[in-house]
Amino acid sequence: MRCLRDEGVEYLFGYPGGAVLHIYDALYKQEEVKHILVRHEQGAAHAADGYARSTGKPGVVLVTSGPGATNAVTGIATAYMDSIPLVVFTGQVMTNLIGDDAFQEVDAIGITRPCVKHNFMVKDVRDLAPIMRKAFHVATTGRPGPVVVDIPKDITAHKAPYVFPKDPTLRSYKPVREGDPAAIRKAADLLAQAKRPMVYAGGGVVLGNAAAELTELVRWLGAPCTNTLMGLGAFPATDPLFVGMLGMHGTYEANMAMHECDVLLAVGARFDDRVTGDLDKFCPNARIIHIDIDPASIQKNVPVEIAIIGEAGLAMRDLLAALKGKGVRLDEAALKAWWHKIDAWRERHCLEYDRANTEVIKPQFVLETLYRLTGGDAFITSDVGQHQMWAAQFYKFDKPRRWINSGGLGTMGFGLPAAIGVQLAHPDATVACVTGEASIQMCIQELSTCKQYDLPLTIVNLNNRYMGMVRQWQEFFYQSRYSHSYLEALPDFVKLAESYGHAGLRIDKPHDVEAALKEALGRRDRLVFLDFITDQTENVYPMIAAGAGHHEMHLATDRELA
Amino acid sequence: MRHIISILLENEAGALSRVAGLFSARGYNIASLTVAPTEDPSLSRMTLVTSGSEGVVDQIRKQLNKLVDVVKLVDLTDNDRIEREMLLIKVCAEGDERDEIKRLSDIFRGRIIDVTDRAYTIELTGDGSKIDAFISVLQPRRILEVVRSGVIGIARGTVTCKSDAS
Ligand SMILES: Cc1cc2nc3c(=O)[nH]c(=O)nc-3n(C[C@H](O)[C@H](O)[C@H](O)COP(=O)(O)OP(=O)(O)OC[C@H]3O[C@@H](n4cnc5c(N)ncnc54)[C@H](O)[C@@H]3O)c2cc1C
Ligand SMILES: Cc1ncc(C[n+]2csc(CCOP(=O)(O)OP(=O)(O)O)c2C)c(N)n1
Ligand SMILES: [Mg+2]
Predict the structure, then answer these.
(1) Which ligand lies nearest the alpha carbon of A386?
(2) Average pLDDT over residues A365-386
(3) Residue A409 burial class via C-beta count within 10 angstroms: exposed 0-12, middle 13-18, buried 19 and up
C-alpha cells in the first residue's frame, strides 16, 4: 500500500478473490488509494487504461489469481499494442503450491509474457518494494507499456520493513531520451530542401506529451500534417495545416499527400499496415525521416533514410532549433504549389454524406452534432467498428489525450470501461462513449460500476443492428453474403440502462438527435444511454482495400474513383 | 544470412523463455541456442544462431535488445571470431570397423570416451562444418545417436561482450 501511495497512485481498479484477500484487507484499512470495483477484470484493465490515456499517468490494476488474471489478459494486450503504461498486480497461489495445479493457479507470467513490456514474480516479501518501484519505472519510461507483477498469497501475509527504493534503474534497461545531434542536423538539411514536405505524426507524440512541439514545428514548416488514429489530437484538427487522418479510412487529401510528398517526417508512428497499405506503393516519391523512441519501430516495415531515436518532444525541439539555425525557410513557391494541389484534393470533400436525410439517422450526423455541442472539448472513448472510424473522422480533436480508443488490438468492449477511468480522472469533464450495439454488449456489465460511482457518462450507441464493419467487408469482398454479422435478439437498450439505474433514450429521427444529445450532455447527475437507431447500410468512406496503395482509395459509392 | 549472436542476460527464471518466446511469436528462425551462467552468477550467457535477410536480423537484434532481461548483445558475425560446438556421437563399432573408426576419430582430433564391444562413443569439438564433416564420414556406418551442444562463440582479440555495469 505504501508503495502505491509513494508512486502517487490515486485509483486502483480491481476485483477481489482468494489470492489477494490480504491485499484487500490492507486496502480496507487505509484511505489514500481509492479502489474502484469493476464487474469483470477485463473492465478493470480497460478502466485503468482509460485513466492512463487521458492523464499520462500509469493505470493500476489488482486482480486475483487464475480466472482473475486470465480475464485481465485482453485488457493487458490492448494496452500493450497501444503502448499504454499499466501496472497490473495479479494474485498467485502460495509459493509452495506453485506448479501443482493448485486451486485457481495459472502461469500468469507465462500467459502474459507476449503482451507485456515486462513482468515480475515476487518471491520474497523484501523484494516487493523494489520490484514495485521497477515496475512503475519500466511501465512509464521509454516506450511505455503494461507491466505485470505476480504476487503469491503467502508473500502478502509476511511483513518487511518498508523503505521507498530511491533508485528504480535496472542495469539492463536504459531508454534513450535525446536524439543523436548529427542525425538531427541531417534531418534539418533534408527538410529545408523539401518542395513537398509532409508530417505524419502518431501515438508517440501523444504518449510523449509532445503535441506543443509538434504544433510549433509544423507551423514553422508550413507543411501539411496528418495524424494516425492513435495520434488524433497531437496536432489541432481545426488548424488549416491539418489534412485529417491517413490510412485505410483516412481522408483523400491526407493519403494523396502521402503518395506525392517528397520529404516525409514521421514522428512517433509505427508504419502500421492499416496506415501504409501496400508497402510497395507506399510514399513512392519520399525521402523519409523517422523519429521514434523505440529502435525496433525504425526500419521495421519501411526503409527510412534518417532515423532519430529519442523522445519525440526533445527531438522536435532540437530539429526546429537546427532548422531555425540554418537561417533559411522552405522554398515558398514550391510550398504554394504543393498547397494548391492539396486544396484541390480537399475539394473532393471525401467525408461528404447525405446530410439532408430527414428519415433515417446518419451516424455521421450524430457525431457531427456531438462535436458541435461539446465544442470539440469532450473526452471521447470508442469501441471498435464503423462507429469508431466515424468518430475519428467527424470529431475534430484539438487537444491530445481526448480521443481514447483501441487501435492496435481493436478490442470491442473497450469503450465503456475506458470511459469509467477517464471520468474518474476528470470528474468535471464531459465524457462520451461512442459505441455500437455489438461492441457495447462485450462489457455492458460495467454499467453497474458506473452506477456505483455515479459517473455521468453519455453513451452514444450507434445502433445499426449490424456488426457494421464486418458487414461492410462482407458487402465489398464477399458479394454481400452477410454471414453472422446481423445481430438478432438485440436487447432493449433503454430498459437495460434503466435496470442498471441509469436513464435511457431511443432516438430514431434525425430531428431528435440534437435534443437528445443536449439532454444527455447536460445531465451531470446521471449516466444517459442514447440508443440511436441509425442507417443500417451506411459504409465508411474513404476506404483503401487491403493491399492497395494510398492513391487507390474508394470514395462514397456514387463517386468511386477510376 | 547466418548470424551468431552473443547475449548477456539476467540469470533469472523466465529470461530464457522470453528469448525463446520472442522467436516463436515473431516467426524468426533459430538454428541453435545455448545458455549457461557466467563468472558473474547473476548473469547468463546465451549464444544464438539464426538466419534471415538483413532486415529480419536487424529486427531480431532490436527486439532482443528491447527485452528488459537482456543486458548486452553483440552480433559476433561482424567480428573475427572463434566458434565451437561439441559433438557426442555413438556409433556401431564391430570387427574391422573398430580400427577404421578409431583412425577417423584421430584424424578429426576426436576422443573415444566410452567403449563397449559393439560401440564407441566419441567426443569432438570444432566449428559446425567440422562437426558436419565428421558426421558425414561416419554416415555409411551405423550411427546410434548424435548429441550436439549448439554453437558457442567468442570474438578474437580484445573485443568482449561484457556488462558495462560490471
Ligand atoms: C477498425 C480499425 C480501423 C483502423 N483504421 C486505421 C486508419 O485508417 N488509419 C490509421 O492511422 N489507423 C487505423 N487503425 C489503427 C491501427 O491499427 C494502428 O493502431 C495505428 O495506425 C497505429 O498508430 P501509430 O502509428 O500512431 O502507433 P502507436 O501504436 O500509437 O505507436 C506509437 C509509436 O510511437 C513510439 N513512441 C512512443 N512514445 C514515444 C515518445 N515519447 N517519443 C517518440 N516516439 C514514441 C512508439 O515506439 C511507437 O512506434 C485502425 C484500427 C482499427 C481497429
Ligand atoms: C473482441 C473482438 N471481437 C471481434 C472483433 C471483430 N470486429 C471488428 S468490428 C466488429 C463489429 C462491431 O460492431 P458494432 O459494435 O455494432 O459496430 P459497427 O461497426 O456496427 O459500428 C467486429 C465483430 C473485434 N474487433 N473485437
Ligand atoms: Mg453495429
Answers:
(1) 2
(2) 97
(3) middle
> How far apart (Å, rounded) are the C-alpha atoms in residues A281 and A365?
34
Name the residue type at position A93: V
Q: What is the pLDDT of residue A562?
A: 32
- The reply to whether residue A117 touches residue B71, judged by beta carbons under 8 angstroms, is no
CB A243 within 8 A of CB A393: no
Q: Which long-range contacts does A391-395 make (Cβ < 8 Å, 24+ apart)? A: A391/A367, A391/A434, A392/A229, A392/A232, A392/A245, A392/A249, A393/A244, A393/A245, A393/A249, A393/A251, A393/A351, A393/A364, A393/A367, A393/A540, A394/A351, A394/A364, A394/A367, A394/A368, A395/A367, A395/A370, A395/A371
C-alpha cell at A271: 508504419
What burial class does residue A350 get, using C-beta atoms within 10 Å of its C-beta: 0-12 exposed, 13-18 middle, 19+ buried?
buried
Residue of B nearest to A174 (CA): B68
Could you count the other beta carbons within 10 Å of the beta carbon of residue A2?
15
Give the SS3 label for residue A244: strand
From the list A376, A244, A358, the residue with the least C-alpha distance to A367 is: A376
Cβ distance of B25 and A114 shorter than 8 Å: yes
With an 8 Å Cβ cutoff, is A554 touching chain B? no
Tell me the β-bridge partners of A432: A380, A458
Indicate the DSSP class of residue A326.
H
ipTM (interface pTM): 0.89
pTM over 0.80: yes
List A residues 400-439 in contact with B (Cβ-Cβ < 8 A): none
DSSP labels for A405-456? ---SS--TT-HHHHHHHHHHHSTTS-EEEEEETTGGGGSGGGHHHHHHTT--
Compare CB distances from B68 to A109, A118, A295 and report the shortest one's residue.
A118
Residue B76 CA to residue B5 CA, distance in Å, equals 6
Cell numbers linked to A523: 445531465
Give the dihedral sign, CA A103/A109/A113/A119: positive
Q: Copy the grid coordinates of residue A232.
A: 488524433
CA A301 / ligand 2 centre spacing (Å): 26
Inter-chain residue contact B10 with A117, CB threshold 8 Å: no
Query: Which residue reads 570444432 in cell numbers?
Result: B126
Q: What is the pLDDT of residues B67-124, one digit of tens each?
A: 999 999 999 998 899 999 999 999 999 988 899 999 999 999 999 999 999 999 999 9
- Count the neighbouring beta carbons within 10 Å of the beta carbon of residue A62: 29
> Would you state the cell numbers that stand for residue A212, as one nine-digit string?
506543443
Dump pLDDT digits (tens) for A221-273: 999 999 999 999 999 999 999 999 999 999 999 999 999 999 999 999 999 99
